TrEMBL record, chains A, B, C, D:
Family matches, as Pfam families: GFO_IDH_MocA (PF01408), GFO_IDH_MocA_C3 (PF22725)
Domain GFO/IDH/MocA-like oxidoreductase intervals: 140-275
Keyword Transcription regulation in annotation: no
Keyword Oxidoreductase appears in the UniProt entry: yes
Superkingdom of the organism of origin: Bacteria
Record protein name field: Predicted dehydrogenase
Sample GO molecular function, one term: oxidoreductase activity
SUPFAM superfamilies reported for this sequence: Glyceraldehyde-3-phosphate dehydrogenase-like, C-terminal domain, NAD(P)-binding Rossmann-fold domains
Source organism of the structure: Melghirimyces thermohalophilus
Keywords: Oxidoreductase
Gfo/Idh/MocA-like oxidoreductase N-terminal domain mapped to chain residues: 5-129
Length: 376, 376, 376, 376
């Protein structure tokens, strides 16, 4: 009988659905050493959490996340709440000896993130941050190419996360636009993703300088039809330097009309270049300088073959997978970590480092100068 | 308590995996009126079928499909065997009063397909053929545009299903290349899919003329290292006329290097055109003649929004789905049909019609002339 | 002093403009052994031909093409008239010892084309047919790859020439839609181009079967506001077999909305595949089976480098050329042929062979069966 | 008889070829009010300049540009020399009452550019800077859409000019990499182009902050096989703010492998977005928020129709033009300006403004802070 990992999830909206699905599908596609069990889901609204448990397949519910942490029959706490609750829940979970999976960004501040990382480290439990886009087969394959030296020294990364879902001035204030709940706007929500991809593929940031903008400064509030102030960024752009000498150009915005979910990057190295775009996430474009003269050009590699990371778990070549599979792949690593007793990357140390860059960008946008990302 | 539909599946390889997954995921994404239960799976090899049942999540196994049909606790027989078994199993299932889902192509011959359609009709049970590509949101949206008259009178369809998995002459003879098991080669396997898409989007065929080719005429046989004759087509192309006056150009091949699974079509009408490609299956390209002068061009519509058929069941706009979701969508229709007592299209009548075109193409390739597709 | 080739051009509309420009630009980009001189242009309408001569840069005019052929100061007759005049002019030019460049298709019928080819052969002068698309650098590079064996044995060509300029039923009857003037419609006009590309890249046709359609059967006549019958095809599709065993699927239509000038092909061989599209004519997509596993995919090669045929005559890598340059490249071959005394391909023998396929397609469309393309 | 504009061109390499060609082709495609005459070309190397004159079609030569300016039979001085000579020649030309066309960037410094702009203004002659990419039909059409309010308030521009021609460390030091001759590296050479496009399409810059990098700091010197220091940037990136509140993200690099000439931008506005890429320069991608729900997506508009700026001068829809036509279009404006007595944009005032941004970027890269672009 395989080891079971009994999960208690806090929150149940968009990310709760994505996580629930990944737990369910994991044993179908993979043969994990540890098998997740959808033990309990917590949410303040009893009707809401029960409906969610029913639809998403959880065995029981709680209306107080503290109760979830107290339960003996829970091994892993999965945090899919708004950002301002991450720290308190994660630290409590760590102190209770639970493994932890936390949605990104890890925290509201570097200070919080550092406390979380320390708590998890002291607890000695397994911890991960849910930067799922790393786990697209095409991105993992990009990583392999870079690690194998196929691109040589890295000169450039340019990455954009472009969305357009709040461009309508009448789109109401939601929690993702309120600083006390979310920390920052586009930066922390989607900028954190491309920043994680950059850390994964290029390496550590050493300095950043950025700009932030709120194009629509007031919005209707859903509750009571009054208008409220938007105190986070609609868009953020920043320049960066990396330890290995690479230059980075980053942009995260919710005001790029026509880009529903345009998470894309290009990396240029001494020997080759790669491009990726989430909207056609199964493809990786690769240029190799070593190709013979006249035959050089970006290849569109459909990363659905046995040799592409994780792809063999799914369908034959040419049969694409989608958004949800990035979670399944990440969860396969989490289960492996729990079975073997280590915290796979991206873990809380990655989340902390990510937070340091996010905070560096915010500080640079305020000061107008470059901010060093210190070694901690 | 919702109605349950207890499924017995015959076969468990590639299609068995796709179907099993779809049954499992259906209630998660949809709220179906009838809920499938993975009751039993049948296969001749006891070890094989038990391992499959375990991995895919079936409650019990049989080593003889006839036993499956005899069982009282099975409502729906799902046939994912090689093609030559479809008829016998489907007819037996119908006679036993079971609902039936059958993989494509429906049969080896029109005669078989006609017997199957009659048996199902007489039994009065629900029947479908698993032409899953119809159920990509982008294809369903294309159908809606056509039905709404957005393309006007249809002039052209050109459709290709291009693969490359058997180009290596040392790739062994598999059942999909043996006439007695499969009926035809590229034609029946992948040609049947684009033919179904054409019937769905453009309408009924009236006449065809085609050519078939076997480029590699002998291959190693896996079993015993001798070479065997390939007696089906590696590639088939055909011209067609439709009831509504449209012209069709079709090509199905397993010798189109670089096309892992290139199922694509373009349809041109009086008022607009559409293009679709399975490898980026979430996109539909649409051209509208009504767009103002100078602003005309193919739009790339990312069919992941609430308004796109089935898309709302999954993730927010811009988050793509993949191959497996075409099955989930089809199965949602099947469950609706079972709950309400009708056979959603594509059902056995569609499968028969499809078979008539397949056979017409084969006969035209032999005779060198056009074959009328009779009204039956 | 370089040899001069004094050109007399018959006709001066769209093709007259393209040819005039190519003569003018040729010595700028190339260093041709023979230099064209724009000596005289002929047209029936005195005002029209004089205005054209003035705008396009011709030194003198004639209102009767026969007079042009009689002139001693003309070395090369360039025929850009409607198709029904090609034969008479070309034969007269040959008999007068002139070199000849003729627009495509060479003639209205095979019989005409054969007389033209014989006349030119007997005259011993240089002759070419203006199939300009062969001369896009990307197409020439494709030819080189095929000749070098990079694709291996060819299995497939699928080629389409898709336009949409007469879809409006009120678009008037023009000469390109009148059989006595043009021979056929989409087939001879644009089908002839893809047929030439197929002969150039894949080899000789051995048999064809086709279908032709006139979607709009009556149109306004520009002259007198009455409606006239359209007696040529709006669209033609055909299947083909080649001497080397390849299969071909072809389609030429003026009813493919959104395709302004969509001349595109894909060729699949044993070792690789290529794709080309006139609308982005500087690119060639190449797939090589020899690429390492996991790294296979179509490369987009921007054929603007020194190593790409003709590209070095123009601009640095990445600076694209356009439609008009295909003529300049062809004309560079014509001048080389005249300087050295041979008729570069595509010459009248190619034009005849092309005509045989065109006529084969028409006959097959009438008979409903395959037509062999005899060796002559 | 049309007015003639007798041109004297200083320099004759890559840009000299592009300009010469544009002068020659202009009267063929357009009917300009003033017609350029290729009167004289100047260069220090007598053999070189005479060979160029012969190949490019100039009537006479000079070995000293000062002599060219002294000649009475020259109306327009065209400066295609390395950048460090622009100012001296342009000022001398202005003082001699000549019209002036100057390659970009206008000067080495703002101070120089300002002197040039003043000299031209005082002389009252016509002046332009050769920012040719503005004149691609797709870019002009983009401008029209923006001016017509089709994008609404502009939120973002992200523009990249990516090249890869000096990535090989053994590529020798050329003038474009030497500060005293070129001013800056990637920034002034290609960054100046995207900066001009941004000014043209979005408006005036108000502040910038940038970073510059020299990846290969020493290179062989062609002359004498010793290595020399590279004292300009291989790559520059910068953030920007615009008068209208838009955010800009820019990157110019010669180290982006696989990008031969990747000049591309995306602009997002309140009501729509546009994208353009020089490598497929005939296309403009346009997204309109006003499109009906479900039908929204980027359209690929092939800007080759009569309604697209300048396109009508060339070929029918779907027949693409290339790099060289951007010069022809610009030159048509220059001739119009000379005929009517005004300096079309981009003129020296634009060149000055461009230089101010270039210098701002350099200064910000040194200081690490934002630099305001003053109103002058």
């Amino acid at each position: 009988m395989k080891r079971q990992v009994r999960v208690g999830m806090v929150g149940y909206k968009f990310m709760g659905k994505a996580h629930s699905h990944a737990y369910r599908d994991l044993p179908f596609f993979f043969e994990p050493e540890a098998v997740p069990v959808l033990q309990a889901v917590a949410g303040r609204d009893r009707d809401g959490v029960e409906a969610a448990a029913n639809q998403l397949g959880w065995a029981s519910t709680e209306t107080d996340w503290r109760r979830l942490i107290e339960r003996d029959d829970i091994d892993l706490i999965d945090i899919v709440t708004p950002n301002h609750l991450h720290a308190e829940i994660a630290i409590a979970a760590a102190e209770a000896g639970k493994h932890i999976l936390c949605e990104k960004p890890l925290a509201l501040t570097v200070a919080e993130a550092r406390r979380m990382a320390r708590a998890a480290e002291q607890a000695g439990t397994v911890h991960m941050v849910c930067h799922n886009y790393r786990f697209a087969p095409a991105v993992q394959f990009a990583k392999k190419l870079i690690d194998d030296g196929r691109l040589g020294r890295i000169y450039h990364i340019r990455a954009q996360y472009l969305q357009d879902w709040i461009m309508d001035p009448n789109f109401p204030l939601v929690w993702r636009q309120r600083k006390e709940v979310t920390g920052s706007g586009a930066l922390g929500d989607i900028g954190a993703h491309i920043l994680d991809l950059a850390r994964f593929l290029v390496g550590e940031f050493t300095a950043v300088t950025g700009m932030m903008e709120t194009f629509i400064k007031e919005r209707p509030q859903a509750e009571d039809d009054v208008r409220g102030e938007v105190d986070v960024d609609d868009a953020t752009a920043f320049l960066a330097r990396f330890e290995n000498g690479a230059m980075g150009v980053f942009e995260a915005t919710r005001f790029a009309g026509g880009n529903r979910n345009g998470n894309r990057f290009e990396i240029n190295g001494e020997k080759g270049s790669i491009r990726w775009d989430l909207e056609n996430m199964n493809n990786l474009e690769v240029y190799l300088e070593e190709d013979e003269k006249g035959m050089q050009g970006f290849r569109t590699i459909h990363c659905t073959e046995e040799v592409h990371p994780y792809a063999g778990a799914y369908w034959p070549p040419g049969h694409i997978i989608g958004y949800e599979h990035t979670f399944i792949n990440l969860f396969s690593e989490l289960m492996k970590g729990i079975a073997k007793g280590y915290s796979p990357s991206p873990n809380f140390a990655d989340g902390l480092r990510n937070q340091m860059v996010l905070e560096g960008v915010e500080r640079s946008a305020q000061s107008g100068g470059w901010i060093e990302i210190s070694e901690d």
